[in-house]
Specification:
heterodimer; A: seven-stranded mixed sheet; 0% helix; B: mainly beta; seven-stranded mixed sheet; four-stranded antiparallel sheet; 11 strands
Chain lengths: 108, 121
């Protein structure tokens, strides 16, 4: 089973700053199978990015995804107040899916 | 697109629970459906997938033998049954639609509101 490790665990930033979140896989993952989600307290997750770099419907262009192989990145170019949340990466392999443990982006 | 899940459940250890997820607003048989759970204060855990068209399923290895996902195309509803419940199964359970045309090449774009299952003696 492929394990996804996200870093850092917590990112303390101010609105307007750039956020860079990392997701590292224990073995190579096709970019086609890598997604990112945002989750706010008490809410269901929200799909941000699929296929490593394709934005989901209605996702602002300040969110971007990149990477290949074992290293993937979610970048939020300028943090808005509503972006402070927990972010998860997710991968697919052999008819199963796994999530990373999450990165919390908090207000500094 | 709307996914409406059944209400909260309280179960004793060793019991089973069966949750439902009713879909509307799209062609039910055209999209895979997943179940994902989240224990209190913890991350997301993928549990299972079903292809509503043919009923094919796949389950997380750690839950194999305890989880069963089925669907009723006439009512556009997906069900998830988890047996031999333990305290560690206490979690919010979500159903989620997959936008992939080819398995794996997509993401979960619509989610139910979640159902809290509490396992306690």
């Amino acid at each position: 089973e492929i394990v996804l490790t996200q870093s850092p665990g917590t990112l303390s930033l101010s609105p307007g700053e750039r956020a860079t979140l990392s997701c590292r896989a224990s073995q190579s993952v096709s970019g086609k199978y890598l997604s990112w989600y945002q989750q706010k307290p008490g809410q269901a997750p929200r799909l941000l990015i699929f296929g490593a770099s394709s934005r989901a419907a209605d996702i602002p262009d300040r969110f971007s995804g990149s990477g290949s192989g074992t290293d993937f990145t979610l970048t939020i170019s300028r943090l808005e107040p509503e972006d402070f949340a927990v972010y998860y990466c997710q991968q697919y392999g052999s008819s199963r899916w796994t999530f990373g443990q999450g990165t919390k982006v908090e207000i500094k | 697109v709307q996914l409406v899940q059944s209400g909260a459940e309280v179960k004793k250890p060793g019991a089973s629970v069966k949750l439902s997820c009713k879909a509307s607003g799209y062609t039910f048989t055209s999209y895979y459906m997943h179940w994902v759970r989240q224990a209190p204060g913890q991350g997301l855990e993928w549990m299972a997938i079903i292809n509503p068209s043919g009923g094919r399923t796949s389950y997380a290895q750690k839950l194999q033998g305890r989880v069963t996902v089925t669907r009723d195309t006439s009512t556009r509803t997906v069900y998830m049954e988890l047996s031999s419940l333990r305290s560690e199964d206490t979690a919010v359970y979500y159903c989620a639609r997959d936008i992939a045309v080819t398995e794996g090449e997509g993401g979960f774009d619509s989610w139910g509101q979640g159902t809290l299952v509490t396992v306690s003696s």
